[in-house]
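Q: Is it fine to ask for two folds in a single conversation?
A: Yes, each is treated on its own. Send the first.
Q: Here.
A: Result:
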Amino acid sequence: MMVAHPGEGRVPYVPFERRKPAYSGKIVVAREEGIVEKHSQGAFIKLLCTETTGDERFTLGERTYDPGVTGTPHDGDSEAIHVLKGHGVLKAWLEYLPRETEVPLQPGMEVVVMHGTKRMVQCSGQEPLVAVVTICHEPFPAYPHHYPAIFEPGKGNSLHMHDNRVEGFYVISGPGAMSIADPDNHTVRDVIVPPAGVGYKPMYVYHRQFNPGNTSELCYWIHSMCVFTHRGSRMPQLHIRQHGLDGKTPRWERPVQL
């Protein structure tokens, strides 16, 4: 099978093969079910990962950077970082610049670092910096899909599936839910995704996400993914977006009608 890697330009898209079964692990992982790993600057709560979903191609979790701890530059897999709390700085060493690029981090900021790019994150405030991080362990991009977003009560998207990506539905706050088909796409069930928990959406499986509408509360959520196509080869090494400073407001302005 031919696989298109970043930087290889426009080539025909050849999808990954469908796994049999399409999935076998958890579909919803609550924060308290996450796997806590210490790192040199804090901790990482792995939610969607090999150990919970059986999918070794990506990891989605909550990473904390403690104040006053010096980081070490490193390269590695593509990461999509969405800052929920705290302040810091990301340093990245890009191929086309002679020195490091510094990006100030604050709530509501999304930073996508491409595969192989040398980078370092440092907490600069008095409180820990907390971010939702999606990591693609294949040489393809991990990035948010024009989110965070809002679901009003009873609202959501339609049932659909993808042959080129795996996705995570991280609920920042409010009531969240998913519809997910069985591995053979024969039957569909609804599952609740709790705040600070995440739903897994495998490739080739029908799914949707929505606000179940049990209360008048809004559902704020982040939609991160790993995309296994040549389209990632046209993304920059470093991609930055700033949302509202509450860490959950979408980038577009629109009134919310309850």
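Q: Second one now.
A: Result:
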Amino acid sequence: MPEEEKDMDKLGIFVTNPHQDTWRHLKGIVKAVQKADKKVRVFFTFKAVHLVQQPDFPEFSKTIPEEDLAICLDSYTCEGFDGVPTGITEKQMRTQAYHGEIVDICGKYISL
């Protein structure tokens, strides 16, 4: 997708780091972006799928539209989890193709 077609009001966030500081930073970034009346698209993958076990993940997930929040199904399975984590739907269990969509759609992008 050409740059001019990307949504410059949407920040893509690729989350790979499972540390507690990452969780705190992610929540702060999402809150700041939304306060600025912008949008986010978040994808948890690799070891960061452990972050969806945070007690406040279900509350966090409600702040982002369903189509803009996903977890890598393969990473989730590889890390020993099964089923669907509390706070998301089965539809939000996605593949790495979702990460490609983030790169294509979002005008800005960060990795945590």
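Q: Anything structural to flag on that second result?
A: Two points. Residues 17 and 69 are 16 Å apart (CA to CA). Helices lie at 20-35, 57-61, 73-78, 97-105.
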